[in-house]
Amino acid sequence: MSVPLSLIDFCHIYPGENASQSFARSVAMAQRAEQLGFSRIWYSEHHNMKHIASSVPSVLIAHIGAQTEKIRLGAGGVMLPNHAPYAIAEQYGMLAEMYPDRIDLGLGRAPGTDMNTLRALRRDPSSSDNFPNDVVELNGYLSGNSRILGVNAIPGANTNVPLYILGSSTYGAQLAAKLGLPYSFASHFAPAHLQEAVKIYRDTFQPSETLKEPYVIAAVNVIGADTEEEADRREEGIHRQRVRSMAGRGRFFSEEQLDQIINSYQGQQIIEMLYFTAKGTAPQIREQLERFTELAQADELMISLQGTTQPEAMESMEILAQAWELDPENTAGVPGR
Protein backbone atom coordinates (compact mmCIF):
# COMPACT_ATOMS: atom_id res chain seq x y z
CA MET A 1 0.00 0.00 0.00
CA SER A 2 1.32 3.47 -0.89
CA VAL A 3 2.15 5.81 1.96
CA PRO A 4 0.06 8.98 2.41
CA LEU A 5 1.08 12.12 0.53
CA SER A 6 1.05 15.59 2.05
CA LEU A 7 2.11 19.02 0.81
CA ILE A 8 4.27 21.88 2.03
CA ASP A 9 3.15 25.30 0.77
CA PHE A 10 5.70 28.13 0.98
CA CYS A 11 3.19 30.74 -0.21
CA HIS A 12 5.52 32.07 -2.89
CA ILE A 13 5.13 35.64 -4.07
CA TYR A 14 6.01 35.51 -7.76
CA PRO A 15 7.53 38.55 -9.56
CA GLY A 16 4.99 41.32 -10.04
CA GLU A 17 2.61 39.90 -7.43
CA ASN A 18 1.72 40.77 -3.84
CA ALA A 19 1.03 38.73 -0.71
CA SER A 20 -2.74 38.92 -1.20
CA GLN A 21 -2.44 37.06 -4.49
CA SER A 22 -0.21 34.47 -2.85
CA PHE A 23 -2.79 33.80 -0.13
CA ALA A 24 -5.57 33.44 -2.70
CA ARG A 25 -3.50 30.83 -4.55
CA SER A 26 -2.84 28.96 -1.32
CA VAL A 27 -6.58 28.72 -0.72
CA ALA A 28 -7.15 27.39 -4.23
CA MET A 29 -4.28 24.93 -3.81
CA ALA A 30 -5.68 23.62 -0.51
CA GLN A 31 -9.15 23.22 -1.95
CA ARG A 32 -7.83 21.26 -4.93
CA ALA A 33 -5.52 19.16 -2.76
CA GLU A 34 -8.52 18.26 -0.59
CA GLN A 35 -10.48 17.18 -3.68
CA LEU A 36 -7.59 15.04 -4.90
CA GLY A 37 -7.03 13.24 -1.58
CA PHE A 38 -3.83 14.70 -0.15
CA SER A 39 -3.58 14.09 3.60
CA ARG A 40 -2.42 17.46 4.90
CA ILE A 41 -0.82 20.77 4.00
CA TRP A 42 1.77 22.48 6.14
CA TYR A 43 2.86 26.11 6.05
CA SER A 44 6.35 27.27 6.99
CA GLU A 45 7.38 30.22 9.14
CA HIS A 46 9.78 32.52 7.31
CA HIS A 47 10.58 36.16 8.05
CA ASN A 48 12.00 39.01 5.99
CA MET A 49 11.92 37.04 2.73
CA LYS A 50 10.33 39.07 -0.05
CA HIS A 51 9.26 36.01 -2.07
CA ILE A 52 7.62 34.07 0.80
CA ALA A 53 4.39 35.27 2.45
CA SER A 54 3.91 32.69 5.23
CA SER A 55 5.41 34.66 8.11
CA VAL A 56 2.57 33.73 10.51
CA PRO A 57 1.35 30.19 9.76
CA SER A 58 -1.43 30.26 12.38
CA VAL A 59 -3.18 33.19 10.66
CA LEU A 60 -2.87 31.51 7.28
CA ILE A 61 -4.20 28.22 8.66
CA ALA A 62 -7.24 30.01 10.09
CA HIS A 63 -7.92 31.61 6.71
CA ILE A 64 -7.57 28.37 4.74
CA GLY A 65 -9.38 26.26 7.31
CA ALA A 66 -12.50 28.38 6.84
CA GLN A 67 -12.48 27.59 3.12
CA THR A 68 -11.80 23.85 3.26
CA GLU A 69 -13.63 20.99 4.92
CA LYS A 70 -11.46 18.05 5.97
CA ILE A 71 -7.83 18.29 4.87
CA ARG A 72 -5.44 18.57 7.81
CA LEU A 73 -3.64 21.90 8.13
CA GLY A 74 -0.53 22.63 10.12
CA ALA A 75 2.70 24.47 10.63
CA GLY A 76 5.72 23.00 8.97
CA GLY A 77 6.77 24.56 11.07
CA VAL A 78 6.62 27.05 13.86
CA MET A 79 10.18 28.09 14.69
CA LEU A 80 9.66 27.69 18.42
CA PRO A 81 12.72 29.66 19.63
CA ASN A 82 11.07 32.74 18.10
CA HIS A 83 8.06 32.46 20.40
CA ALA A 84 6.88 31.88 23.94
CA PRO A 85 5.50 28.30 24.12
CA TYR A 86 2.43 29.62 25.94
CA ALA A 87 1.54 31.94 23.04
CA ILE A 88 1.87 29.08 20.54
CA ALA A 89 -0.33 26.86 22.72
CA GLU A 90 -3.04 29.54 22.68
CA GLN A 91 -2.80 30.03 18.92
CA TYR A 92 -2.93 26.37 17.96
CA GLY A 93 -5.37 25.53 20.73
CA MET A 94 -7.69 28.13 19.23
CA LEU A 95 -7.24 26.62 15.77
CA ALA A 96 -7.96 23.15 17.15
CA GLU A 97 -11.24 24.41 18.62
CA MET A 98 -12.15 26.07 15.31
CA TYR A 99 -11.24 23.03 13.19
CA PRO A 100 -11.42 19.89 15.38
CA ASP A 101 -9.13 17.00 14.43
CA ARG A 102 -7.60 18.96 11.54
CA ILE A 103 -4.67 20.84 13.09
CA ASP A 104 -1.01 19.77 13.24
CA LEU A 105 1.91 21.58 14.85
CA GLY A 106 5.39 20.99 13.45
CA LEU A 107 8.19 22.51 15.53
CA GLY A 108 11.57 23.66 14.30
CA ARG A 109 14.66 24.87 16.11
CA ALA A 110 16.07 27.15 13.39
CA PRO A 111 15.10 30.86 13.37
CA GLY A 112 13.70 30.83 9.84
CA THR A 113 15.44 34.13 9.16
CA ASP A 114 18.68 36.07 9.55
CA MET A 115 20.18 37.21 12.85
CA ASN A 116 19.15 40.87 12.49
CA THR A 117 15.53 39.88 11.88
CA LEU A 118 15.70 37.47 14.80
CA ARG A 119 16.66 40.37 17.04
CA ALA A 120 13.77 42.40 15.58
CA LEU A 121 11.52 39.57 16.78
CA ARG A 122 12.84 40.40 20.28
CA ARG A 123 14.43 36.98 20.65
CA ASP A 124 17.90 36.11 21.86
CA PRO A 125 19.79 33.97 19.30
CA SER A 126 20.74 31.63 22.16
CA SER A 127 17.06 30.86 22.84
CA SER A 128 17.36 27.87 20.50
CA ASP A 129 19.39 26.17 23.23
CA ASN A 130 16.17 25.83 25.22
CA PHE A 131 14.27 24.14 22.41
CA PRO A 132 13.81 20.73 24.12
CA ASN A 133 12.39 22.35 27.26
CA ASP A 134 10.18 24.61 25.17
CA VAL A 135 8.71 21.58 23.37
CA VAL A 136 7.93 19.88 26.69
CA GLU A 137 6.41 23.09 28.09
CA LEU A 138 4.25 23.53 24.98
CA ASN A 139 3.07 19.94 25.09
CA GLY A 140 2.10 20.43 28.72
CA TYR A 141 -0.16 23.34 27.87
CA LEU A 142 -1.84 21.47 25.01
CA SER A 143 -2.36 18.28 27.02
CA GLY A 144 -3.78 20.10 30.05
CA ASN A 145 -0.70 19.32 32.17
CA SER A 146 0.85 22.75 32.49
CA ARG A 147 4.29 22.81 34.11
CA ILE A 148 3.52 26.22 35.65
CA LEU A 149 1.07 26.13 38.53
CA GLY A 150 -2.11 28.04 37.75
CA VAL A 151 -1.14 28.85 34.14
CA ASN A 152 -3.29 27.14 31.52
CA ALA A 153 -3.74 27.74 27.80
CA ILE A 154 -7.33 28.81 27.20
CA PRO A 155 -8.10 27.70 24.57
CA GLY A 156 -5.45 25.06 24.19
CA ALA A 157 -5.62 22.87 27.30
CA ASN A 158 -6.77 19.32 26.50
CA THR A 159 -6.87 19.93 22.75
CA ASN A 160 -3.84 17.61 22.42
CA VAL A 161 -2.76 19.20 19.15
CA PRO A 162 -0.32 16.64 17.69
CA LEU A 163 3.30 17.80 17.74
CA TYR A 164 5.91 16.89 15.14
CA ILE A 165 9.63 17.54 15.47
CA LEU A 166 11.15 18.95 12.29
CA GLY A 167 14.79 18.60 11.41
CA SER A 168 17.51 18.73 8.78
CA SER A 169 20.23 17.12 10.92
CA THR A 170 20.53 14.41 13.56
CA TYR A 171 19.62 16.79 16.41
CA GLY A 172 15.90 16.72 15.72
CA ALA A 173 16.00 12.94 15.23
CA GLN A 174 17.46 12.44 18.69
CA LEU A 175 14.95 14.78 20.32
CA ALA A 176 11.93 13.28 18.55
CA ALA A 177 13.05 9.79 19.55
CA LYS A 178 13.58 10.79 23.18
CA LEU A 179 10.18 12.50 23.47
CA GLY A 180 8.31 9.81 21.52
CA LEU A 181 7.06 12.23 18.85
CA PRO A 182 6.72 11.91 15.07
CA TYR A 183 9.72 13.13 13.08
CA SER A 184 9.71 15.08 9.82
CA PHE A 185 12.98 15.44 7.90
CA ALA A 186 13.54 18.37 5.50
CA SER A 187 15.17 16.30 2.77
CA HIS A 188 13.61 18.55 0.11
CA PHE A 189 16.37 21.09 0.77
CA ALA A 190 18.82 19.31 3.13
CA PRO A 191 19.45 15.83 1.70
CA ALA A 192 22.81 15.04 3.28
CA HIS A 193 21.79 13.54 6.63
CA LEU A 194 18.44 11.95 5.76
CA GLN A 195 19.35 8.29 6.16
CA GLU A 196 21.54 8.84 9.20
CA ALA A 197 18.87 10.89 10.98
CA VAL A 198 16.09 8.41 10.25
CA LYS A 199 18.21 5.52 11.47
CA ILE A 200 18.98 7.32 14.73
CA TYR A 201 15.32 8.14 15.20
CA ARG A 202 14.09 4.60 14.58
CA ASP A 203 16.87 2.92 16.57
CA THR A 204 16.48 5.11 19.67
CA PHE A 205 12.73 5.79 19.63
CA GLN A 206 11.06 5.68 23.06
CA PRO A 207 7.29 5.07 23.00
CA SER A 208 5.15 7.74 24.62
CA GLU A 209 1.50 8.31 25.46
CA THR A 210 1.28 10.14 22.15
CA LEU A 211 3.03 7.64 19.88
CA LYS A 212 3.69 3.92 20.31
CA GLU A 213 5.78 3.35 17.17
CA PRO A 214 8.16 5.68 15.29
CA TYR A 215 6.61 7.71 12.49
CA VAL A 216 8.74 9.34 9.78
CA ILE A 217 7.65 12.01 7.33
CA ALA A 218 10.25 12.64 4.62
CA ALA A 219 10.09 15.67 2.34
CA VAL A 220 10.81 15.44 -1.38
CA ASN A 221 10.46 17.74 -4.39
CA VAL A 222 8.25 16.90 -7.36
CA ILE A 223 8.39 18.25 -10.93
CA GLY A 224 5.61 16.79 -13.07
CA ALA A 225 4.99 17.22 -16.79
CA ASP A 226 3.33 15.47 -19.71
CA THR A 227 6.71 14.55 -21.21
CA GLU A 228 10.16 13.82 -19.87
CA GLU A 229 11.58 16.59 -22.06
CA GLU A 230 9.23 19.19 -20.59
CA ALA A 231 10.10 18.04 -17.07
CA ASP A 232 13.79 18.51 -17.89
CA ARG A 233 13.09 22.01 -19.20
CA ARG A 234 11.17 22.91 -16.05
CA GLU A 235 13.90 21.55 -13.82
CA GLU A 236 16.48 23.74 -15.55
CA GLY A 237 14.26 26.78 -15.01
CA ILE A 238 13.81 25.89 -11.34
CA HIS A 239 17.57 25.55 -10.88
CA ARG A 240 18.21 28.91 -12.51
CA GLN A 241 15.52 30.60 -10.44
CA ARG A 242 16.83 29.11 -7.21
CA VAL A 243 20.47 29.99 -7.87
CA ARG A 244 19.51 33.53 -8.87
CA SER A 245 17.51 33.96 -5.64
CA MET A 246 20.01 32.41 -3.23
CA ALA A 247 23.25 33.67 -4.76
CA GLY A 248 21.97 37.06 -5.84
CA ARG A 249 20.13 38.20 -2.70
CA GLY A 250 18.60 41.15 -4.51
CA ARG A 251 21.37 41.75 -7.04
CA PHE A 252 20.72 41.59 -10.78
CA PHE A 253 22.52 38.96 -12.87
CA SER A 254 22.57 38.74 -16.66
CA GLU A 255 21.92 35.29 -18.12
CA GLU A 256 25.64 34.96 -18.88
CA GLN A 257 26.58 35.82 -15.30
CA LEU A 258 23.98 33.38 -14.03
CA ASP A 259 25.48 30.65 -16.20
CA GLN A 260 28.86 31.28 -14.60
CA ILE A 261 27.41 31.10 -11.09
CA ILE A 262 25.49 27.90 -11.86
CA ASN A 263 28.70 26.26 -13.08
CA SER A 264 30.61 27.41 -10.00
CA TYR A 265 31.04 25.44 -6.78
CA GLN A 266 28.55 27.75 -5.04
CA GLY A 267 25.95 27.26 -7.76
CA GLN A 268 26.32 23.49 -7.73
CA GLN A 269 25.93 23.45 -3.95
CA ILE A 270 22.63 25.30 -4.26
CA ILE A 271 21.37 22.89 -6.92
CA GLU A 272 22.51 19.91 -4.83
CA MET A 273 20.03 21.01 -2.16
CA LEU A 274 17.30 19.73 -4.52
CA TYR A 275 18.93 16.30 -4.81
CA PHE A 276 15.79 14.47 -3.73
CA THR A 277 13.51 15.41 -6.60
CA ALA A 278 11.05 13.15 -8.40
CA LYS A 279 10.75 14.39 -11.98
CA GLY A 280 8.95 13.41 -15.16
CA THR A 281 5.66 11.87 -16.20
CA ALA A 282 3.22 10.21 -13.80
CA PRO A 283 4.75 6.70 -14.11
CA GLN A 284 8.27 8.07 -13.71
CA ILE A 285 7.31 10.08 -10.63
CA ARG A 286 5.64 7.09 -9.02
CA GLU A 287 8.70 4.89 -9.56
CA GLN A 288 11.05 7.54 -8.15
CA LEU A 289 8.87 8.24 -5.11
CA GLU A 290 8.59 4.53 -4.35
CA ARG A 291 12.39 4.29 -4.33
CA PHE A 292 12.63 7.38 -2.17
CA THR A 293 10.08 6.00 0.31
CA GLU A 294 12.18 2.88 0.75
CA LEU A 295 15.42 4.84 1.02
CA ALA A 296 13.97 7.19 3.65
CA GLN A 297 12.04 4.44 5.51
CA ALA A 298 9.17 6.91 5.34
CA ASP A 299 5.66 6.41 6.69
CA GLU A 300 4.47 9.51 4.83
CA LEU A 301 5.86 11.81 2.13
CA MET A 302 5.74 15.60 2.37
CA ILE A 303 5.80 17.00 -1.16
CA SER A 304 7.27 20.34 -2.20
CA LEU A 305 5.74 21.08 -5.60
CA GLN A 306 8.33 22.75 -7.81
CA GLY A 307 7.74 25.14 -10.69
CA THR A 308 8.83 28.53 -11.97
CA THR A 309 5.16 29.54 -12.01
CA GLN A 310 2.10 28.57 -10.00
CA PRO A 311 0.43 26.83 -12.98
CA GLU A 312 3.48 24.57 -13.29
CA ALA A 313 3.31 23.70 -9.59
CA MET A 314 -0.42 23.00 -9.79
CA GLU A 315 0.10 20.76 -12.81
CA SER A 316 2.70 18.84 -10.81
CA MET A 317 0.08 18.31 -8.10
CA GLU A 318 -2.42 16.91 -10.60
CA ILE A 319 0.17 14.58 -12.14
CA LEU A 320 1.32 13.45 -8.71
CA ALA A 321 -2.24 12.63 -7.61
CA GLN A 322 -2.68 10.58 -10.77
CA ALA A 323 0.65 8.82 -10.27
CA TRP A 324 -0.07 7.90 -6.64
CA GLU A 325 -3.72 7.00 -7.30
CA LEU A 326 -4.87 9.11 -4.36
CA ASP A 327 -8.26 8.38 -2.83
CA PRO A 328 -10.16 11.53 -1.71
CA GLU A 329 -12.01 9.42 0.89
CA ASN A 330 -8.85 8.02 2.49
CA THR A 331 -6.95 10.87 4.13
CA ALA A 332 -4.45 10.31 6.95
CA GLY A 333 -5.18 11.08 10.56
CA VAL A 334 -2.75 11.47 13.40
CA PRO A 335 -0.05 8.76 13.63
CA GLY A 336 -0.33 6.47 16.63
CA ARG A 337 -3.93 7.36 17.49
Described by the principal axes of the CA atoms, the overall outline is: globular
- Which CATH architecture is right? Alpha-Beta Barrel
Number of strands: 9
Structural class label: alpha/beta
Uncertain runs are none
How many domains? 1
Query: What is the CATH level 1 assignment?
Result: Alpha Beta
Organism: Corynebacterium occultum
Family: To bacterial alkanal monooxygenase alpha and beta chains.
Keywords: Monooxygenase, Oxidoreductase
Pfam families: Bac_luciferase
Tell me about this structure:
- The chain is of the alpha/beta class.
- It has one domain (5-324): Alpha-Beta Barrel (TIM Barrel).
- The protein contains twelve helices and nine strands.
- It has helices at 19-36, 57-65, 85-98, 115-120, 131-143, 170-179, 194-204, 228-248, 255-262, 265-272, 282-296, 310-324, and strands spanning 5-9, 40-43, 72-79, 103-108, 163-167, 183-185, 216-224, 277-280, 300-305.
- An eight-stranded parallel β-barrel has the order 1-2-3-4-5-6-7-9, surrounded by eight helices.
- The two termini are 19 Å apart.
- The model has no long low-confidence stretch (mean pLDDT 92).
